[in-house]
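RECORD TYPE: inverse folding
INPUT: structure tokens
STRUCTURE:
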């Protein structure tokens, strides 16, 4: 039986008691189950503390035992440590009772905001028809959501490394990179693009940056590697790389100056090569300095540009090295990832 059909049967049964009943019964059932989970967690916590006999918590909810058939569905949620919640709650002298299912619903709402982003999170629970989200409002109460948001932490903040500005999410980073590596083969690409990525953030933090003119102007700047489909990946070794470099990074490489290259015709190429790396300067609209350990200048290809012939603006063809072509082909991969991160 499908979920909607089940709700229709419940509503039909409910109308035997209240003929004016509507699908608002979903909210009532959700609230009843939430109260049951909280009482069940209090019982479980008292048992974990070593309490015995008379010291075990006795539920005060009058219908608790009527819903005991749900107990098997409330399995432990091992991915989230309740210790991290409790530490932050104790700091503020706050009693926090969070059920397993509530954490799951909280994470589900966060995933939903990845593509449905309100200006303010509270708008999901407003009664206005243009902002109210029935899926969110019927799944979790607003106050419970913000209570979890206030006290949820991905680590024990009492044992943070003072030298790591991202210590609060370092363990999360490690798990993400492990999962990305494990599923990289499914991404179906042998080429990755490495560049800076901005993670949106508008609060106050010492590592927050502002980059004017970018799709994401405020946030944390991280280094990322992604495939052409936007799949994020970070590999530690055996990587071939091609990229644009600053001229002052090649002090020991005897390439002509950019000022001298500008006087030469478009398409002019100068290069130097060692046993592992090739560095080159290419004159296009401006002078481009590129280095690679996997792509060379050959073969030279023709690319279309806008130039002047007999003082008239027209299309021209310019020589372009293979390393530039490969760089331009795969550099859009981080752009795809950025579009996914942009709210």
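DESIGNED SEQUENCE:
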């Amino acid at each position: 039986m499908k979920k909607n059909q089940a709700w229709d049967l419940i509503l039909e049964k409910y109308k035997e008691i209240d003929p004016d009943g509507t699908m608002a019964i979903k909210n009532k059932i959700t609230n009843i189950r939430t109260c049951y989970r909280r009482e069940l967690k209090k019982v479980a916590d008292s048992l974990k503390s070593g309490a015995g006999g008379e010291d075990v918590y006795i539920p005060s909810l009058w219908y608790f035992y009527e819903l005991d058939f749900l107990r098997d569905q409330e399995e432990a949620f091992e991915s989230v440590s309740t210790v991290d919640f409790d530490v932050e709650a104790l700091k503020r002298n706050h009693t926090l009772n969070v059920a397993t299912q509530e954490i799951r619903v909280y994470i589900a709402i966060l995933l939903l905001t990845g593509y449905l982003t309100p200006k303010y999170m509270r708008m999901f629970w407003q009664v206005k028809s243009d902002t109210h989200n029935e899926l969110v409002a019927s799944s979790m109460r607003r106050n419970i959501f913000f209570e979890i948001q206030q006290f949820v932490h991905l680590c024990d903040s009492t044992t943070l490394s003072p030298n790591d500005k991202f210590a609060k999410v370092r363990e999360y980073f490690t798990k993400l990179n492990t999962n990305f590596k494990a599923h990289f083969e499914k991404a179906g690409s042998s080429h990755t693009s490495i560049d800076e990525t901005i993670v949106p953030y508008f609060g106050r933090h010492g590592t927050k940056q502002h980059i004017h003119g970018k799709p994401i102007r405020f946030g944390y700047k991280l280094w990322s590697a992604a495939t052409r489909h936007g799949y994020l990946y970070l590999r530690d070794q055996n990587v071939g790389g091609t990229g644009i470099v600053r001229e002052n990074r090649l002090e020991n490489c005897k390439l002509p100056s950019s000022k001298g290259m500008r006087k030469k015709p478009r398409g002019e190429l100068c290069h130097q090569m060692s046993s592992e790396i090739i560095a080159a300067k290419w004159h296009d609209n401006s002078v481009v300095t590129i280095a690679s350990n996997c792509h060379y200048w050959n073969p030279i290809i023709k690319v279309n540009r806008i130039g002047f012939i007999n003082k008239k603006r027209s299309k021209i063809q310019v020589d372009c090295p293979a390393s530039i072509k490969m760089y331009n082909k795969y550099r859009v991969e981080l752009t795809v990832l950025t579009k996914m991160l942009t709210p």
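NOTES: The first strand starts at residue 193 and ends at 200.
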